[in-house]
Write a structure and sequence with these properties.
Blueprint lengths: L19 H4 L2 H16 L1 E2 L2 E2 H17 L5 H7 L17 H15 L2 E7 L2 H19 L1 H11 L15 H11 L3 H16 L2 H14 L3 E8 L3 E6 L5 E3 L12 E9 L3 H4 L5 H18 L14 E21 L5 E6 L7 H7 L1 E17 L5 E6 L17 E4 L3 E2 L2 E2 L2 H25 L4 E4 L17 H11 L20 E4 L5 H22 L3 H4 L9 H14 L1 H28 L3 H8 L7 H5 L6 E7 L3 H16 L5 H8 L4 H131 L12 E2 L2 E2 L7
Helix pairs in contact: 5-10, 8-24, 9-19, 10-19, 14-16, 19-20, 22-23, 22-24, 23-24
């Protein structure tokens, strides 16, 4: 097979409003791939967008490692390209790596916690019910306390010592105390997936990329046999649609360029023949030669049996169409149709049916051999991630953030430092040159001043002997006059020669070095207080901490970008977990994997897909924020505004705002408690004083009562004596009256008996008179009838029971 050539032809993106059937064809995917390829790999006078960006990222990464090319420095110091007279150490000064390590390692120390907030209707209703129960306890607190005191029944749903008193306290109480089990299950699921994918290591690479090249990227996906996976993505290999959004939210395609071995192609498309594999391999060689890509990275992958593949995801729309037919029994039936289903209105009216459609976002996956018209894969993406709150949208598998992007250009921390790092390297090389040419200090010997000097040894005194004597003893022997008796001007025959060659230059270079180093600190905000390399001994500790805090503020955008990527991945994991639990065969294994830390949470995980969550990142406060909070805690403890248990609870809260709010609440509660204790103490003292007064009054009262009782007892005794006397008199009188009564009764009885006898005698006398009258009457009657002589009725017997009545005769 003859050699092939690479041609990148201009191709525009296909019609976005094409039918779904057309979008599924390989021709449609090939045109998209060719359009992406033309945008990123076309070569013109400005070079190639993809490989220029890769080379730029590679250059920045070398600077971040202190391994940048020294060619530019050699060109700066060479004379017409000749370096034969320079013997310098060309190793770059690793200034930039120090600052990058400060930023990245400082971000690694900032721990975070994923917080899930259930925001579906069911969770919102439960949260409202819990809040209403707390509000009910707040409103009925006095009544419930009275019930508890009188009947011993605790009717509070919330412990009375934790019950809030105001709306602000209620809001804080809900944030700190209300945590439903389903939110705990969601957080456990996200943290488990992060741990399984070793996300801490991935995050370090992302943080390093953001600080070095200005952009960080990651990828999430679901593998049927491996679950949810999170991967680090090298931004140098990524392609994406043009965007000015630092969060890449409006990108409609994403992709990666990978160089793989030819045998890997069969895993993608097992139908490839040997001829096709050979053709693809030749295209790979031509591609490397065309872009000279093998020189970018010295990697063994760039061999003859390799191919450059472009993996890409393309966002488009898909219509979901149904035929809604009303049956004779009144029920309705939904029949799925394709997007070509478009019957006229008359037909729908006659057939008693209607067309229902919805347009949703979808992503297509494609794999294309770079520089060719060969599509290895084009299909609708599986396991697309869709937020429940907006099911028509689908989020991409890639998550990226470039905090300092403008008009598509990415700026980084290293890019700011590169010009000054180059100047520092030049200064360093110049200092080596100056040091190489510095001459040590020497001495000047006047030969005439030591000529003919006799040391007493018989030997001639020469300059060598003078130097030896000078360096060993510091003494010098010379002559004031010559042998001819003339005056010798060199009275001091040996004098030191001080040289300043190079000293001023070195000081100037050192000043320039420090100046450029200060410029790096100025353009990045990484001052001396950030790393403690050169603290000012005269500066106060608070001033140094403030400077370190300002430095943290200057690089906060890097931390926020890293947290944005973490939050986006957490949201994607949340959506994927819901899909796994609802649709995947991997469900039970996944539940056991998540719930292995807490068996009691398994039941909640099974229903996780029903809920909708908002994901938040709670970052641990930095050292300065912790110091401020700790200072507030210590001040409160010193003033007895909070207890030690309160301080422990406050320190455990990661959210600094909530921690300060809780501190204010605890202080308020403590002040109220102290006031209550003071009032109780005052009341107790008042009670004690009142009890003392009552005791004194009671003692006086008891004394008065004792005296009164004694007097009363005397009076009682006197009264008792008088009463006894009167009672004795009354008894005597009663007896006399009784005796008199008896006598009177007896007299009365006698009188009555006398009267009775008298009446009886009268009656008897009457009876006798009547009897006598009747007798006399009978005799008179008899006299008349018989004409008898007069009858004398005078009694001849005047004695009555020996009582003679003659004395009472008529007179």
């Amino acid at each position: 097979m003859k050699d092939v050539s690479i041609k990148i032809n201009p191709v525009s993106f296909p019609d976005l409003f094409a039918s779904d059937k057309e979008k599924e064809t390989y021709e449609y995917g090939l045109r998209i791939g060719q359009s992406i390829q033309y945008e990123w790999f076309k070569k013109d006078s400005h070079g190639c967008k993809f490989y220029d960006q890769r080379a730029n990222f590679h250059k920045l990464r070398l600077y971040a490692r202190g391994e940048q090319s020294v060619g530019k420095y050699k060109n700066e110091l060479s004379v017409d390209g000749d370096l034969s007279h320079l013997n310098l150490d060309w190793t770059p000064v690793p200034i930039i790596p120090k600052f990058i390590d400060i930023v990245v390692n400082g971000m690694t120390d900032r721990m975070f916690k994923v917080k899930a907030y259930a925001q579906d209707a069911m969770s919102t209703d439960k949260r409202s019910q819990f809040q209403e129960a707390v509000q009910t306890d707040m409103a009925a607190k006095d009544l419930l306390l009275q019930v508890k005191d009188q009947f011993g029944i605790d009717a509070f749903d919330t412990p009375v010592d934790e019950l809030p008193e105001t709306d602000d306290e209620l809001s804080l109480f809900m944030q700190l105390n209300y945590k439903p089990a389903i939110e705990i299950a969601e957080e456990q699921a996200i943290n488990t997936i992060f741990d399984d994918n070793k996300y801490n290591d991935i995050r370090k690479s992302i943080d390093l990329d953001i600080a070095t090249i200005g952009v960080g990227m990651a990828k999430h996906m679901f593998l049927p046999g491996d679950g949810v996976r999170i991967e680090y993505v090298d931004p140098a290999n990524v392609i994406y649609s043009y965007t000015e959004n630092p969060y890449f939210k409006d990108c409609f395609y994403w992709g990666e360029v990978k160089t793989v071995h030819t045998t890997e192609l069969l895993k993608i498309d097992p139908t490839l023949t040997d001829d096709q594999l050979e053709e693809i391999s030749k295209y790979g060689q031509s591609w490397n030669n065309y872009y000279n890509s093998a020189q970018v990275y010295n990697n063994s992958m760039f061999s003859r049996d390799s191919a450059t593949l472009m993996y890409f995801n393309y966002k488009t729309t898909k219509k979901i169409v149904y035929k809604k037919k009303t049956l004779d029994n009144g029920t309705e039936k939904m029949i799925p149709k394709d997007d070509t289903f478009n019957p006229p209105q008359e037909m729908m009216d006659e057939g008693n049916f209607e067309k229902i459609e919805k347009t949703i976002d979808v992503w297509y996956d494609g794999i294309m051999v770079a520089g060719t018209n060969i599509m290895l894969k084009w299909e609708l993406s599986k396991n697309m991630v869709r937020p429940k709150s907006a099911t028509q949208h689908a989020i991409p598998n890639y998550v990226a953030c470039a905090p300092r992007m403008y008009k598509g250009n990415i700026e980084s921390l290293v890019k700011r430092m590169v010009p000054f790092a180059d100047l520092i390297q030049i200064v360093h090389l110049k200092m080596q040159q100056v040091l190489a040419k510095v001459v040590p200090d020497g001495v000047f010997i006047d030969a005439d001043g030591i000529n003919e000097v006799d040391l007493g040894t018989g030997a001639a005194y020469n300059p060598e002997d003078a130097l030896r004597l000078y360096f060993q003893t510091g003494s010098v022997i010379g002559r004031s006059y010559t042998g001819d008796g003339e005056f010798n001007n060199a009275r001091v025959p040996i004098s030191e020669l001080g040289t300043n060659s190079g000293q001023g230059k070195l000081q100037s270079l050192i000043g320039s070095y420090n100046h450029y180093l200060g410029m790096i600190r100025d353009v990045t905000g990484l001052n001396e207080a950030r790393d403690g390399s050169n603290p000012n001994p005269d500066a106060l500790v608070g001033v140094q901490k403030l400077a370190a805090l300002n430095s943290n503020t200057a690089t906060r955008h890097i931390l926020e970008s890293s947290l944005y990527i973490t939050r986006s991945l957490s949201e994607a994991i949340s959506y994927r977990v819901a899909d796994i639990l609802e649709y995947s065969d991997f469900k039970e294994e996944f539940i056991n994997q998540i719930g292995r830390y807490s068996v009691g949470i398994l039941d909640n995980i099974k229903d996780l897909y029903i809920y909708d969550f908002g994901i938040f990142i709670e970052v641990t406060p930095d050292e300065e924020e912790k110091a401020q909070l700790e200072q507030n805690i210590q001040v409160s403890l010193s003033r007895d505004s909070i207890l030690l248990e309160d301080a422990i609870d406050i320190r455990e809260i990661r959210n600094l705002k909530l921690a300060n709010q809780l501190l204010k609440l605890k202080r308020k509660k403590r002040e109220e408690q102290k006031q209550k204790i003071a009032q109780e103490t005052q009341q107790m003292q008042g009670q004690i004083q009142q009890q003392s007064q009552q005791a004194a009054a009671q003692n006086a009262m008891q004394q008065i009562q004792a005296e009164t009782q004694s007097k009363l007892q005397v009076k009682q005794a006197e009264s008792a004596f008088d009463i006894q006397k009167m009672q004795s008199e009354a008894d005597l009188k009663m007896k006399l009256m009784e005796l008199e009564f008896n006598y009177q009764m007896q007299l009365k009885g006698i009188e009555v008996n006398t009267l009775t006898e008298k009446e009886k005698m009268k009656e008897e006398a009457k009876d006798k008179r009547v009897s006598l009258q009747n007798t006399q009457q009978s005799k008179l009657i008899d006299q008349r009838k018989n004409n008898l002589p007069p009858v004398d009725f005078e009694s001849t017997n005047d004695n009555l029971d020996s009582f003679d009545f003659s004395q009472f005769g008529p007179r």
